[in-house]
Amino acid sequence: MKGWKEIPEGGLILEAGSSMKYKTGSWRAQKPKRDEDKCIHCLVCWAYCPDGAIIVKDRKIDHIDYDYCKGCGICAKECPKEVIEMEGEK
Amino acid sequence: MKTLGLNGDNAVAYAMRQINPDVVAGYPITPQTIAIEKFSEYVADGEVDTEFVATESEHSAMSACIGASAAGGRVMTSTASAGLAFMWETLYIASSMRLPIVMNVMNRALSGPLNIHCDHADSMGARDAGWIHIFGENVQEGYDNIIQAVRIAEKARLPVMPCFDGFIVSHSVERFEALEDEQVKGFIGDYTPVYSLLDIAHPITSGPVALQDYYMEHKKQEHEALNDSLRVIKDVAKVYKKLSGRGYDTMAEYKLKDADVAIVVLGSTAGTARPAIDAARKKGIKAGLLKLRVFRPFPRDDLIKTLDHIKVIAVMDRSDSFGSFGGPVFSEIRSALYGATKAEIVDYIYGLGGRDIVVGDILKVITEAATIKKERKVKHYVQYLGVR
To answer: Are B65 and B36 in contact (CB under 8 A)?
Structure first.
């Protein structure tokens, strides 16, 4: 790790988009699991996800990005078809 | 150069007008002083280009200053007493983000009991907040310090708190020499921030989180930055002397060279102490005065050099540090001199809440110091001066 002489002054971060390097998925205690067959791709979970971890391709949910999903469970709570279930992390 | 007669508050506002900062955020109501109020008149009259932000509290005033400074502006404000106390949290943010904010403090007591008069409890409470603290004795020094502070802050990339005594200096009209507007402009120069939130070609993040893994490295940087700023303060003083003819350093002496007892004071008390030194000398006491100008960073090496021949040092603290062994100036000086000299060092806590300090009081302190030297015995290391 860098020493005090090597880090920017004033606690600044001098590059854009550096939060991508911080994989917050490791915080997760519960993991959302989506039933792909029953999902109607209404995108409610995508709209609610506070971490942008619901990845959409061609207006359809492609996958959940577990590198950044913190397991908050909002997607499971808001899903109108109740097809997202929270499972304990192993 | 021109001669003016203004009180300390108006002299601060006058200096701020000459500095013409990009942003001033303030909360112009008591316990604020009239410096910000007077400056807002300059804004209203179009005499400055400053964006003036009237906030709903001192906490918000400093927060607005932090935002404006992080955005790359030259930023100033002013406060006192409870106003400074209410800025507490944000003072640390300003210094840890290395923002060169200049904030004049007119030192005033903290409640309770409710009191608005002079003592140093406000800025002494903020002594560990990572700001540079510079004390002025009178209106002239207050004016000179605030102009130097802009350059010190921007060179050291640290916030600076020039302080002077509330009411005694802030509300007393004194004659002083002001620089011409063009001279101030030339001295401070244009401000080019190293980083700015508004520089969209070089995006940065300000104020991120740093936990167990990096917090200490950031604090070590602050520690070193404060220590390094001593050199900056001295360099700026040299340039300012060329411009104004008035020299400054971390401290000033009066009849100290051949003295064997010394008193140490901050701020306006120095003016009262000089005739007390003269009176003591007439009585045969070889007394001298050390007026400390820079309290943060604490000028340890200068202090050892200046006081190494003194046998008894009486420190005068215009604030208490309750439950501690003496006031803040005493603690610092005793700690700095420990192992470096064999002087007896005693503390007098005085002038709290604006209690008058007169020549006779200081003469009493000097006389007691001379007695300690003679009898080689200290009865009380810490006492309240003039308390009933």
So the answer is: no
CB contact under 8 A, A3 and B96: no
Q: Which of B187, B221, B244 is the last residue of a domain?
A: B244
Report the distance separating Cα B262 and Cα B365, nearest Å: 10
Residues B362 and B322 in one domain: yes
The rounded distance, in Å, linking the Cα atoms of B149 and A12 is: 24
| B12: CATH | 3.40.50.970
Do B274 and B374 share a domain, yes or no?
Answer: yes
Instruction: For residue B257, give its domain range.
Output: 251-384
- Together in a domain, B92 and B215: yes
Q: Has residue A26 been placed in a domain? A: no
The reply to whether omega before B67 is within 30° of 0 (cis) is no
Cβ <8 Å between A15 and B206: no
Could you list the beta-strand ranges (E) of B151-306.
Answer: 160-165, 173-178, 251-254, 261-265, 287-292, 294-296
Burial of B271 (0-12, 13-18, 19+ CB in 10 A): middle
Predicted complex: ipTM over 0.90: no
Question: Looking at the 3D structure of chain A, how many domains does it have?
Answer: 1
Residue B304 CB burial class (10 angstroms; 0-12, 13-18, ≥19):
middle
- Best probe of the B interface among A9, A14, A15, A22, by most B CBs < 10 A, is A9
Q: What counts of helices (H) and strands (E) characterise chain B?
A: 13, 15
Verify that B235 and B277 share a domain, yes or no: no
Strands B294-296 and B312-317: unpaired
CB pair distance less than 8 Å for B217 and A18: no
A44: domain CATH number is 3.30.70.20
Does A7 map to a domain?
no
Instruction: Select from B223, B244, B265 the last residue of a domain.
Output: B244
The contacts of residue B24 (CB under 8 Å, 6+ apart) are B16, B36, B39, B43, B50, B51, B52, B53, B75, B76, B77
Residues of chain A with Cβ-Cβ distance to B96 below 8 Å are 10-11
Q: Rounded distance, CA B223 to CA B231, Å?
A: 14
Which chain A residues touch B207 with a CB distance below 8 Å? 11
pTM above 0.95, yes or no: no
Average pLDDT per block of 10 residues along chain B, 388 residues long? 96 98 86 84 97 95 98 97 95 98 97 95 98 98 98 98 97 97 98 94 93 97 98 98 98 98 98 98 98 98 97 98 97 97 97 97 98 97 97
* Backbone torsions φ then ψ of B196, nearest 5 degrees: -145, 140
In a domain, A25, yes or no: no
**Dist. CA B290–CA B306, nearest whole Å:** 8
Is the separation of the CB atoms in B11 and B139 below 8 Å?
yes
B217 and B106 in a common domain: yes
